[in-house]
Amino acid sequence: MAMSRNISVSEASRPKLPRHARLKFDETRQVWVILAPERVLAPDEIAVEVLQLCDGVRSVGDMADQLAAKYAAPREAILTDVIGMLQDLADKGFLTEAREKTS
Amino acid sequence: MSDILADGKTAGAAPSDGLAILESQRSTAETFGIPLAVLAELTHRCPLQCPYCSNPIELDRGGSELTTEEWKKVLSELAEIGVLQIHFSGGEPTARKDLVELVQHATDVGLYSNLITSAVLLTKEKLSALADAGLCHVQISFQGNEPAVADRVAGLKNSHEKKIEAAKWTRELDMPLTVNAVMHRQNLHQLSDIIQMAVDLDADRLEVANVQYYGWALKNRAALMPTLEQIEETSRIVEEAVIRLKGILAIDYVVPDYYALRPKKCMGGWGRQFFNISPAGKVLPCHAAESITGLEFESVRSNHSIAWIWQNSEAFNRYRGTGWMPEPCKSCEFREIDFGGCRCQAFALTGDAGNTDPACTLSPMHEKIFKDAEREAAAHQDRFLYRNFAGGTLETEGEHGA
């Protein structure tokens, strides 16, 4: 039985863009884009900032810490927003999770 | 391959997730930026002989193909002017010995590359080399879910088996896979099984593409046209699968427009968001555009830049926007929604590319093509005219007895 490849994003997740989704600055149009099969998406500024933190090493919790410090905003609110945004991306197949090393 | 970055595919993201579609920023019919994606038809050579091939009847011979250096120059130029994605297609792109080199060059100049292939010429080593060269996505065509139907449609023995193998290698190499299933009267009964095949192959996307009737497919229309009952069943199967497989398999569905009420927004509008480059280097508004006689298409071998051809050449401006439209399109409230449908279909069915696409109910021809479709679908003339450089070969009697 095929399993859904999409992840469930939590504070402990360490998400990253999958191989087929590339975050790139489009020099011609002066916007950030996500390149994916048969699609070109234009993430907004906040999405770009969060996506640049998605390196497969940082956890979502780490990202919330970093963004809360940078914007002097409540961490809980930021965490909720970041998880919501990343889950949307994950549901569309534009985000995956770094594979856990088996212990 | 008629629907790259067409509507429905770009409309994937809701604004609520912080993603907007670049295309949607364009508001008026007359706006045309440099396309985000370009289709590079590297060759018309192909080991398959599918009767619905999207290539023109007049195939480009091997000797007229752009050289490796010419394609590299094209790729560099495309990246420079702002194209983001390149689709390597054909014919069969892997019939070009320089494909790895071209993919590597696309990667070097920053293009996102997609391989649209029949897969029968691939080996695991070749696919691995393409992955190493930076290939981002593989799309494999399937003619059915099992060899009896699939190999007959492809006109090549053991092709189905090879495709299955190549699809597995694609996923082993961790590349995303799209299964492209071209559907018609003689394989629509396999649709549920094809959907399951795509799931079993661990594909990311499935394109359920009903045949569009130009060129070879138009010649084979009587053998391919589905019945209205089949189309209704197809829509039901697809709708059910889209819901059931959410998060497992994304499904794009291309409906057959002979049975439609409104025409498709072909290519997103002529010369508006797409062009392709033919094996011999012609810059075309769509892969079927050369079927429209009387239009001159500029080549990358000319003295003009690709950007100049896109913006200024007569062929691109001939049906661009809405200014060219006669009635009933001219005063139609949908003229900026569908841009009058498909120019190639208008030409093929009415003899004038400037007419309303007969797929539209407002076309005086609509009733006729609807009746033609129903009649041909019911007549069960099942013999194929196979696509080849010799102008086609009729399937021998008895081969189609299934």
List strands and helices in order, with pairings.
The complex is a heterodimer of chains A (103) and B (402).
Chain A (H helix, E strand, L loop, with lengths): L14 E2 L5 E5 L4 E6 L2 E5 L1 H9 L6 H12 L3 H17 L4 E2 L6
Antiparallel strand pairs in A: 1-5, 2-3, 3-4
Chain B lengths: L18 E3 L15 E5 L26 H14 L3 E5 L9 H10 L3 E6 L6 H9 L4 E6 L4 H8 L4 H14 L4 E7 L7 H10 L4 E6 L4 H5 L1 H4 L3 H17 L5 E5 L20 E3 L5 E2 L21 H7 L1 H5 L16 H4 L4 H8 L15 H14 L5 E2 L6 E2 L8
Report on this structure.
The complex is a heterodimer of chains A (103) and B (402). Chain A has 103 residues and is an alpha+beta fold. Chain A is globular, with a radius of gyration of 14 Å. Chain A contains three helices and five strands; from the N terminus they run ββββαααβ. Chain A has a three-stranded antiparallel sheet. Chain A has a two-stranded antiparallel sheet with strand order 1-5. In chain A, strand 2 and strand 3 form a beta hairpin. Chain B has 402 residues and is of the alpha/beta class. In chain B, strands 8-7-6-5-4-3-2-9-10 form a nine-stranded mixed sheet, with helices on one face. The longest helix of chain B has 17 residues. At the A-B interface, strand 2, strand 3, strand 4 and helix 3 of A face strand 1 of B. Strand 4 of chain A pairs antiparallel with strand 1 of chain B.
Short description:
By secondary structure, chain A is an alpha+beta fold. Chain A has helices at 45-53, 60-71, 75-91; strands at 15-16, 22-26, 31-36, 39-43, 96-97. Chain A is globular.
